[in-house]
Amino acid sequence: MPQRPAQALLLLVLAQALHSIEEYAFRLYDLLAPARYVSGLFGVDRPIGFVIVNSALVLFGLWCWHARVRPGRPSARALAWFWALLEIANGGAHVVLAVAAGGYFPGLATAPLLLGLGGLLAWRLSSGYPAAGSPGRARETVPAPAAAAPAIDWRIHFAAPPATVWRAWTSDAGRERFWAETSRRDDSGFDLAFVNGERLRVDVIEALAPERLVFRYFGGSTVTVEISADGAGGCDLRLREEDAPDPIGNHAGWVSVLLACKAAVDFGIDLRSRDPERSWDAGFVDV
Asked: For residue 193, how far is the Cα from the chain centroid?
């Protein structure tokens, strides 16, 4: 997910941590029935139970930001909306409780933070920000009109036979030669780690060796790689991406990936700088 919604979520989770500290300091677990109940679930003193529950909530929020929303996993938008609506309701409930009490109620001081940041996150999610980046990670852009976005449909020729190119795309060793710093394969797909620290889970939809590979990429887009023999010992590769979150950025990004693949497969050369300071984020194409 682009930085703006991801940053808003991180700020919202940190605001929840401050909110929990305020509630603990003013003993919400003694004053509000739901808080008393939840704090007593662990068979320990209510203050300790309250700390356990709220620590788990904040850690869950940080996990959502780091492992799902920031890298743009398919569940990113749903989780971001969950947090936005949860904290808007949380902040609003504390304002209502304070009004009902006729004065201060634990959590009131930080309730405006939850309302403001929850509203900010909801606004950014509903303002057309896409769910993820491009290969490596795209620089943040205002989404272009659909009619102006280029179709992501590239072709490249290899002197190597189809089986060799297939192994480059489907084996960990092959992917690490041109695409990612590390690749870890399992039964349903593979995990990539890029030079800028980005990590991505790639789910394989179809794998028909050595002709066709279909997988989910950043933001839940669908990438199709088709390899066909050229009749002279080499092959042609066609790559298409549908529903790309950033068509313009991804259109350029795949050129970098495909040329790096050709260099690795046909010439045994790694074109990448492999320098975190010279990543796609910084405008470098040799990543």
From this structure: 12
Length of the chain: 287
Rounded CA separation 62/22 (Å): 19
d(CA 240, CA 152): 5
Please determine, for residue 247, whether its predicted confidence score (pLDDT) is greater than 80. Answer: yes
* Cβ-based neighbours of 125, under 8 Å, separated by 6 or more: 5, 77, 80, 81, 84
| 3-class secondary-structure state, position 188 | coil
42: tokens are 């662990």
Return d(Cα 252, Cα 273) in angstroms, integer. 18
Q: How far is CA 34 from the centre of its chain?
A: 33
Distance CA 224, CA 233 (A): 23
SS3 for 44? Answer: coil
**How far is residue 39's CA from residue 79's CA, in Å, rounded to a whole number?**
25
Identify the three-state secondary structure at position 49: helix
Confidence tier at 22 by pLDDT (50, 70, 90): very high
pTM above 0.70, yes or no: no
How far apart are alpha carbons 35 and 29 in whole angstroms?
Answer: 5
Cβ proximity of 95 and 108 under 8 Å: yes
Residue range 123-173, pLDDT digits in tens: 888 875 544 443 444 444 455 444 455 789 999 999 999 999 999 999 999
DSSP-derived secondary structure letter, 64: I
User: Any alpha helices (H) in 145-246, and if so which ranges?
Assistant: 162-170, 172-176
Tokens 């940190």: give the residue. Answer: 14
Token couple for 269: 């050369």
The reported pLDDT for the residue numbered 1 is 41
